[in-house]
């Protein structure tokens, strides 16, 4: 008799549930980009893309890493007409001392992308398989983060990233407005420069004229329809020297929502002398559940909150910010997101005048934004070990 | 001395202003679709597409009619990420008696598409050149509306159309959220069946849960972001047997806006005994300036309005409709749009109950919807001569 073997049964791969990393095939680009200094590749797409296709009847195909190339899309396909598209953005970074590459909390991007897909009538997938594929893809493309022979930057905080862009698009050629029967999942990447954290000038929008999102809409989903319509207002603001729009909501209450495509935080002291770090809540579905936002909140609650400092998610109006400024209680403000990281705000354009926002907390050597940014940097660069940094093998 | 010649100087074609029909080139499809009965081609795309490309520096390229084929789009291009896309829809129809093909008010589609392009940060073009190109394209593809040898339909009102779909998409490969520097204009077409005007069942949305558009948003522009996000709510409504959602806006006032992707009209008598044909106004920017909507309003004002019948554009709530129903004053309701044409509404699902909407006006042989539909049909089929019908040579 053979001894009985206790086996944890592997889950059966079901193509209607997800794509699977175990099914991944790789076709290497036969003309790989030649370079000695990867900084010359800035903003260029890398050599490969990861692709998986879905059909409502057959489910997901095996994912494949293939040479980066144009997609032959039918002119009638859903994404080009009805905005059936969503995306994610995250960064891979190489620690120059250890040579190791990390990405930051990819599980949160997986979960959010699934939510966006559901909102925009695209198929779902397993969060775990998404993360596995993302790590595999970075493993193939991490040479674009080469550090041997790379000239050290002047500022050691100034790191270049591999920006990772997963997208999902509806590919059914069909002129009727209907849920797509076919979709494509892609991961593409580009080397991008570290965001230079020049303090931002934000222009508060007029909620009678331009509104980014609405309760019952889709402001919490990372879908194309949240971005294209912001470009004209953004260009108009840029003509007046503003970096981004601070999106207000509701003509009466003028609630502060997002800064450009990033989340927004304000730090003020209350008339009673308490310090508050405040950001808009997720409850009304008008702002994005940012990975950086969530991380800032968690770190601030873990490491800053005390008797005299509170971290708060609640609705607040631009008039509260103006009042705090007028009463000398405004401590600082910052925007955060994958693209911006944690960027201090220097000025807020409100009702035709510019409010100067303090850049250093009163009497302290570092602002809250700087402190939190330093903590986050230590984590995603792998300088300190932390559960949020996923290491690429 | 040569006599002076008075010449009207032709406008100089400026590629930064528009594409031009005079520059059009045609490459015929070498494998044209073979058919004897064009009805077998239903929902298939025709043999050609019209394409013009734009770049911010060089302006518009010469437009070209080329064989219908997949578009090789860079995976990083704007339209796939940020919803930089807009479209139009219109129908070409062949009069079986005269053999002539007409399209309906293409100048209005040109104007609206320019507005949509502006809203979504895409380039503009000349309305006139758009119409000229559309007519040229239909001239090439009108064989898909062949009528010789075509079996007559049982119902003479039941006509097949060539559905024309102009689109504009942002094609710049660029991962940053920014106005595209490149765009593509396309016209594609498909033969589609006449909409079978089975009376519709509409489900009034809960404006706390699902909102199509909002003031300061982009509900008046024909951009992708207005369509993708409606698919999940629409599927949920379809599971309960509804054909479309009647989109309400504002939790308190519950204003009636659009029916699916069509405009909505209600006909009721006032307590004072006057008849009113009512639809939502364009003023708050949440509904589409429909070509059919506009035509219905114009014809109704021209041919129906009198001392006792008024045609009105104003905000109205679903509760007014319910009240009119309860008091026996609801005469009829209909949806209208290019896809639906003029479709009577049989039922409205409101707050968990279904309101039966009369399908025939009290005591009259034809409903207002039927009357207006007949007038519109006579115009676009070329049965009566009218300035709204553009004839294809």
TrEMBL record, chains A, B:
Domain of life: Eukaryota
Catalysis: reaction(s): L-isoleucine + 2-oxoglutarate = (S)-3-methyl-2-oxopentanoate + L-glutamate; L-valine + 2-oxoglutarate = 3-methyl-2-oxobutanoate + L-glutamate; L-leucine + 2-oxoglutarate = 4-methyl-2-oxopentanoate + L-glutamate
CDD domains, A to Z: BCAT_beta_family
Gene3D superfamilies linked to this entry: 3.30.470.10, D-amino Acid Aminotransferase, subunit A, domain 2
Entry's Gene Ontology molecular function annotations: transaminase activity
Documented EC number(s): 2.6.1.42
EC top class named in words: transferase
Keywords from the UniProt entry: Amino-acid biosynthesis, Aminotransferase, Branched-chain amino acid biosynthesis, Pyridoxal phosphate, Transferase
Cofactor: pyridoxal 5'-phosphate
InterPro entries: Aminotrans_IV, Aminotrans_IV_CS, Aminotransferase-like, B_amino_transII, BCAT-like_C, BCAT-like_N, BCAT_family
Similarity-based family: Belongs to the class-IV pyridoxal-phosphate-dependent aminotransferase family.
PANTHER family: BRANCHED-CHAIN-AMINO-ACID AMINOTRANSFERASE, SUBGROUP IIII AMINOTRANSFERASE
Protein name, as recorded: Branched-chain-amino-acid aminotransferase
Organism encoding this protein: Myxozyma melibiosi
